[in-house]
Design brief:
alpha+beta; UDP-n-acetylglucosamine1-carboxyvinyl-transferase, Chain; 4-stranded mixed β-sheet; 27% strand; binds uridine-diphosphate-N-acetylglucosamine
Length: 428
């Protein structure tokens, strides 16, 4: 895998199509990235299976290598198997360029702090979807006894005599914040309680891995995590759960195209919020052995939804679901309640003929619109996939620019869409 991003790559999409067939979902990006960081907590090998082949994984692998870890990768069953060994890690200062590549990289701080009693990194990068503070992460570290200072545009976290367990209230149930503080707490002395923890499946997955490495965490999946610190963690092998956001993306694509698609490996038990909305729209969601079948007959019915922390509807599916609503008959309201600037895709959809009024965090969508091809940009991972979904049902040719955003989060997206009958070509 390479982290090189060819910023000139575009996709040409011919629509409309009705998707049909079967697609296999890859491992969950936001779980895999946190777990790669967790491998730094031990000097043994940690083997992660079913890791998605995406550029965020490639850039985090590079970051781990620059810190001194070894990351051996192998492609098995259309997924990556990573063998990570952190025994050679010699520095606790994360390199700036790679932290900027994606936000998950900031999660090396928790493990490095645990291992070395200090860690530093610049503020993290990621999508431009609104304010992305890290106060929750830093607050958690400080409650565990660390000093947090700002030096040369880096956050430096210091705990030379080790971390000690504490009761920590998180102002917001931040996903990566909970993951980061959890990784710092597992080897802190005594007992830690994290109140208002994120309950997302990707946090639960990380907790599962940490317990398999010897940690003692209880309450995973609830808003209150109880951690008893242990002296050491050891290696293990873990298969990453399938990606609920990728599954949801294919489910939405199938539904809005009036298609019939089997989504293999879809983690249906963590997809309730989306499946309920699809059913409200008149889409059939049939849980079958090994996955879920999505079958839709147009016209779709409109519905209102709010993007919320888990188990609410995921903010990462807000833009794709809003795109589906351009095809529903009537007016729908979308309320983004997790990030403050996540409606940036609206002007791109307007270029394709959508009728949407957006202001602040609320959008009103009037459908059905007969979408047409246009030149549009993928503004971030999910805004990008939203315009790609629109292109599948639009008449004519759509050219999607800045495809590197899609490569950050979707494993072999064009190939998978092509197996479902989409006419998508890469223009390098
Ligand atoms: C993660 C996911 C991202 C997803 C998001 C919400 C990764 C790599 N990315 O991002 O795909 O969209 O969860 O499900 O896992 N906040 C604070 N202080 C903080 C941290 C966050 O106020 O210290 C606020 C943010 O401004 C935002 C909200 O919390 O409004 C959600 O952010 P958070 O849960 O931290 O998202 P990420 O972990 O960055």
């Amino acid at each position: 895998m390479t982290t090189a991003r060819d910023r000139g790559t575009r996709l040409s999409v011919q629509g409309p199509v009705r998707l049909h067939g079967s697609v296999r979902v890859s491992g969950a990006k936001n779980a895999a990235l946190a777990m790669m960081c967790a491998a730094l907590l031990t000097t043994d090998d940690v083997v992660l299976q079913n890791v998605p082949r995406i550029s965020d994984v490639a850039s985090l692998s590079q970051l781990l290598r620059e810190l001194g870890a070894s990351v051996d990768e192998e492609v098995r069953d259309d997924a990556l198997a990573l063998r990570i060994n952190g025994s050679g890690v010699a520095t606790s200062d994360a390199p700036a360029e790679l932290i900027n590549e994606n936000r998950a990289s900031f999660q090396v701080i928790g493990p490095l702090l645990t291992r070395f009693g200090r860690a530093s990194a610049p503020p993290p990068g990621g999508d431009s979807i609104g304010q992305r503070p890290i106060d929750v992460h830093l607050w958690g570290f400080s409650q565990l006894g660390a000093d947090v200072v700002r030096q040369d545009n880096r956050h430096v976290v210091l705990a030379p005599t080790g971390l000690r367990g504490a009761r920590i209230f998180m102002d917001y149930p931040s996903v990566s914040g909970t993951q980061n503080v959890l990784m710092a707490a597992v080897r802190a002395s005594g007992r830690t309680t994290i109140v208002n923890a994120a309950t997302e499946p990707e946090v639960q997955e990380l907790g599962g891995l940490l317990n398999a490495m010897g940690a003692r965490i209880k309450g995973l999946g609830t808003q209150c995590l109880e951690i008893v610190g242990v002296d050491n963690l050891h290696g293990t092998t873990w298969r990453v759960l399938a990606d609920r956001i990728e599954s949801g993306t294919y489910a939405i694509a199938a539904a809005m195209s009036g298609g019939d698609v089997f989504i293999e490996d879809a983690p249906v038990t963590v997809m309730d919020a989306l499946l309920a909305k699809l059913r409200a729209s008149g889409v059939e969601t049939l849980v079958e052995p090994g996955g879920i079948r999505i079958r839709a007959m147009r016209p779709l019915k409109p519905f209102n939804f709010q993007a919320l922390p888990y188990p609410g509807l995921p903010t990462d599916l807000q833009a794709p679901l809003a795109t589906l609503l351009t095809q529903a008959v009537g007016t729908s309201t979308v309320h983004e309640r997790v990030f403050d600037n996540r409606l940036l895709y609206i002007p791109e959809l307007l270029k394709m003929g959508a009728e949407i009024q957006g202001s602040g965090s609320v959008a009103y969508i009037h459908g059905p619109s007969e979408l047409h091809g246009a030149k549009v940009r993928a503004l971030d991972i999910r805004a990008g996939v939203a315009v790609l979904l629109a292109a599948l049902v639009a008449k004519g040719t759509t050219v999607v620019e800045d495809v590197y955003h899609l490569e950050r989060g979707y494993d072999h997206l064009e190939e998978k869409l092509r197996t479902l009958g989409a006419r998508v070509e890469r223009i390098d």
